[in-house]
Design brief:
Order of helices and strands: EHEHHEEHEEEHEEH
Structural class: alpha/beta
Radius of gyration: 16 Å
Number of helices: 6
Strand content: 15-25%
Number of domains: 1
Strand order of the largest sheet: 1-2-3-4
Helix content: 25-40%
Distance between the termini: 18 Å
Length: 200
Amino acid sequence: MDLSFLRREIAVGLNKIFLGFLRFGFYPRYYVAVNKKVLRQAESQIRALNCVKFISDRGSSFLPESALTYHINTTEPPRRFSRDLAQGAHEGGTVTHVALQVAYYLGFKEVVLIGLDHRFEYTGAPNEARRLDGPDRNHFTPDYFGHGQTWDNPDLAQSEESYTIARQEYERVGRRIIDATVNGACTIFEKASYRDLFFS
């Protein structure tokens, strides 16, 4: 999918978005990652990102703060949705929930989600760590978590609970979260076509 139109927008990239930079045709202004496995697996790539990075304090021992790197307290957040990153951010079972708190803190009045598929094939229980020996079929590239990497199984129920809280927090102050994912399975947010939003 060509996402080069995002060059004209303020974009926030998550987790291993850097694996798709050439394919998608844009570079984010902000980056968010909180899962320690992601932070460890992508340590060198995260260091190399030339954008403002918000990462969990879980990675503070190997990804120190710098002019572009900020640690967020996600290990002991004060509430389910934080409006002040200085106090921390709740992980909510998904990096997207943290990114929504980051966007809120940065003052965005409207957030458009792209790539929130919200469907996964996996074995085992939610939140269980699993090794993927073959290609990763759940993300935009088979190398995302595949070929011997370990990931944490998704917890869609917890994610939906977190998304519901995020939507309520945004709407409480007149802000919006719009899900413009093509064929996305999440039903929590207002839906729209990205073409209508960015090309009309």
